Amino acid sequence: MIVDGELANHVGASLMRIIIGYANGCVWAIILGSAAGRIAAARGLIMPVMNLVRPISPVALVPLMIIWFGIGEMSKVVLVGYTAFITIFFNTMTGVASVPPTRIRAAQTLGASGFSVFRLVVFPSAIPYILAGMRIGLGLAFMSVVAAELIAAEEGIGFLIIQSRYSMLVDRMFVGLLCLSVIGFSIDYLFRRLIRRFGGAYVGKEFSETL
Question: Per-residue confidence at 57, pLDDT binned at 50, 70, 90?
């Protein structure tokens, strides 16, 4: 599978879906989570919906993704993004809402505007929570790509595993599982190294060591 390029095609297809879905999930989760954590009215609008959709498994959403987005790449990317979004949203909201009031009042006393307080105090204080959510969401994105590739996929690691099941090719199934494991571990390791290298201004040594 390595020699004839088949494995590379499956890995490349799944990685592209994971990267695009995860990136979009991160952006929307941080925006909406920040709004929910900082603005009571936004929290009142967003939280009922989030509490309703949170228990829904990505596998249960496969038929809905097909109806709404078709059988192309969009449905797969949205499903991966949804899975990452949930965790990152709640971590972001918790981090923004957990900023000590004394920090906010100190900035206001020094004349900081509402947006400046958020940009210079609230958001930096929430970064450890956001990073923890992003790491968990990254793992969930790898888990959900298998469910996403149930949607009329022609290539991908999940497609490889599912097709191997139909033919009882257990060795190929283990190839897919090993790929998910090794690639997920490698990306998670890179993520942790980047946090330790560039996140020192926002997270302490003890926190970065736990990631």
Answer: confident
Please name each of the domains of the chain with its CATH number: 6-210 (1.10.3720.10)
Q: Judging by beta carbons within 10 Å of its beta carbon (0-12, 13-18, 19+), is residue 162 exposed, middle or buried?
A: middle
Query: Which residues, 6 or more positions from 10, have their beta carbon under 8 angstroms from its beta carbon?
Result: 155, 156, 157, 159, 160, 176, 179
The Cα 195–Cα 57 span in angstroms is 30
Q: Residues 5-21: pLDDT tens digits? A: 888 998 998 999 999 99
Calculate the alpha carbon distances from 106 to 35, 172, 182, 207 in Å: 21, 59, 46, 25
Q: Which two tokens stand for residue 72?
A: 């192309």
CB 133 within 8 A of CB 207: no
The distance from CA 81 to its chain's CA centroid, rounded to whole angstroms, is 6
pTM summary value: 0.86
Q: Helix 62-69 and helix 123-148: axis angle, to 10°?
A: 90
